[in-house]
Every structure is written in C-alpha cells, then in structure tokens.
Design goal:
Blueprint lengths: L9 H13 L6 H29 L12 H21 L3 H6 L1 E5 L7 H17 L3 H8 L6 H6 L1 E5 L1
Antiparallel strand pairs: 1-2
C-alpha cells in the first residue's frame, strides 16, 4: 500500500450520504419534552443540594422575591450552565442521555461554543418568551427542529 486514496465516484458518494441521512431518526416532541422534564428535576436537585445550602452558608436569603434576588440569579446561572456545559461537552443533557438522544450540528461539524450558546441561551430564551411556542415547532417541522434548533442550525437525533 502506498497510502494513496482512491477517489470515490460522485454517484456512490451521494448514494452513501443519502443512505446515511435516511438512517437518522429525529427526536420528536414528546421524547424531548420528557427529557426536558427530567433535566428540570436535575437542575432543581442541584439547586436544593448545592446552591441553596451555599447561599445559607454565606447568610444570603434564598427567597426569590424579585428577578434580581441573589437566589434567582444563582438558580438562573445554574440552569443555563447545566444546559450549556452538558450540551457542549457531551452533546446531550442527562435527560437526553436517558432517552438516547443527542444534539448535533446540522452540517456535521462538532458543536462550537457559539452554536451551543446561541441554542441553549438565546434560542431557548426567545422560544420561552413567546409562550413556549418555539418549542412547539418540534412537533410540526420536518426535521423536528425547535425554534432554538432553527437559530443554531442543530438537530436532535437518536443515538
């Protein structure tokens, strides 16, 4: 072997790509919904096991009376940090792991920080702000993409 690669005819390459994309199973609304609820349980547990005791230790109130209360800010940071870090490093949150799903870039490249931040923070914030309608896009789009997936060019597929 000389280490040279043989060129693959375009027809064969296109047929292979078509077969590969036909095997992709997009994760639907209800599976993503259950995974999200599981993630909310995880984030709530982190807040109750780590964040609130830490605030108590610092003698800071855990009352979330306003948007700028320390507990509100701490729980919000925990929420977004969980989704951003899990998606960036594992391509999935614990909820998606349980249900066998992962987030991929639509072009097949690895997820970048920009993509993950756009998807998890900006995209989901906008999707929630308009009465969670952005999440309903998952139920009605061809590739089951939510509004946040549309913004970041990502897909959620089964592993």
């Amino acid at each position: 072997m000389t280490g040279e690669y043989l060129s693959i005819p375009a027809e064969t390459r296109n047929a292979t790509c078509a077969n590969a994309s036909s095997h992709v199973r997009y994760a639907g609304f209800w599976m993503r919904f259950w995974a999200y609820l599981l993630d909310l349980l995880v984030v709530g547990s982190i807040n109750r096991l780590l964040v609130f005791p830490f605030l108590h230790l610092l003698d800071i109130s855990v009352e979330r009376t306003s948007m700028f209360a320390p507990a509100t800010i701490a729980t919000t940071v925990t929420f977004y940090a969980y989704f951003v870090l899990m998606t960036k490093f594992f391509q999935q949150t614990l909820g998606k792991m349980v249900f066998g799903m992962k987030v991929i870039d639509e072009s097949g490249r690895p997820l970048t920080w920009t993509t993950v931040l756009f998807r998890e923070v900006i995209g989901k914030f906008i999707a929630k702000t308009i009465l969670f309608i952005g999440f309903l896009f998952v139920a009605f789009s061809e590739k089951k993409k939510g509004m946040h997936d549309q913004f970041a060019d990502t897909l959620v597929i089964y592993e």
